[in-house]
Amino acid sequence: MSIRRAVVVGASLAGLGAARVLAEHVDEVVLIERDMLPDEPVARRGVPQARHLHNLLLRGVNELEALFPGFGADLHAAGAVPVDMLLELKMLSIFGWFPRHPSEIVMPCCSRPLIEQVVRRRVRALPRITWLEGHDVEGLILNSEQVCGVRCRRREVGAGDALEIESLLVVDAGGRGSRLPGWLDGAGLAKLAVTEVNPFLGYATRILRMPPSAPDWGALVVRNPMPSSRGGAIMPREGGLWVATLFGFGRDYPPTDEAGFDAFAHSLADPGLHEALSAAEPVSDIAGYRQTTGRWRHFEHLSSWPAGYVALGDAVCTFNPLYGQGMTVAMMGVAALRALLTEQGVEPDLGGKLRQRVARLLAAPWRIATGEDYRYPGTEGPPRPWAARAAHWYGDRVVRAALRNPDVHTRWMRVVHMLDDPATLLAPGILGPALSSLH
Predict the structure, then answer these.
(1) Across residues 152-179, what is the average pLDDT?
(2) What are the phi and psi torsion angles at 359 (to 5°)?
């Protein structure tokens, strides 16, 4: 079966990446996005968390660089601020201060809209991609268990009849609000199993202009010791600005009024964050966010799957955004799609095979994120399996060891940035210091 056109739903990073790799294999890629996409790096309605702190982990940078050579240079030219995560990041964990020492783990700090803009410009320059902005996808067109296209409509009031786009391959990169589960139910497929972990985390964010006198750090993270659920972070972004986020687990939501925001910052274990906020000039109001439930839609467990359907990014799994994993995991999914296309070309069963690969790459970041979530009383979700409890227990010992051992710190941070598999933390050079941290 020859597939000459592909449809991608959503101009998220996952959607942009999917369009990029599919354009190498089909004659036309139709990219459908509900928003009218801005030319400037500004927040848009379809990414409600865009105003808040975002981290593009080093694995995500590498995946984007592989798709778009020169991406890192473009991002820095657009204003991203490089921060050495072991030297310039001053970080107070729930167990104490991390050491600070030079490393090669340098993360570009910037806003989510800037990352999207840099990637979007690259994709717009590609041939074979048709952009359909300002359109809602209303459903799949199915023939038995084969996708035949999508039905969409312009979002303007009185937009007229629905538009049908024929395609034997549809990629859902529609994000957390994807309608895919409903479409699968409508196709008469097996009921989709979903795992949810809700730590009832909330955060509040403000953008500030950096003070003239710079502190002795490039970025700051403060976590209160247990049993407190509170923390905060300041990260640089383009334009000489800081993004400051305060957070609390277990419904200990930081306020979004001036006095409440200030009092919450003042309650943190180290005064440095509050002092930095007091010295900086606010340039935005305070925005809150509470959609932080981790949700894994287990497509890999479905007994049947519509041929020609592919799901990527947040349409499959959303993480508690506090840990900064979402963009990176989405790009790992795109890399898996690219590898599968290279191996077998464009085939109807592409999505059925990809869902298994995506499930495997989700396992480690999901275990890390939910392990942290379960630390706090009141978190709702299924009972953790024994293996996850053991991994959490050992992970805490690694962190304690990292507080006094720069080599352990470096190797732990490489796992945080998904450059290395978590299993590397079981190496003898880590295992010994970790177990000795019990004493």
Answers:
(1) 85
(2) -60, -40
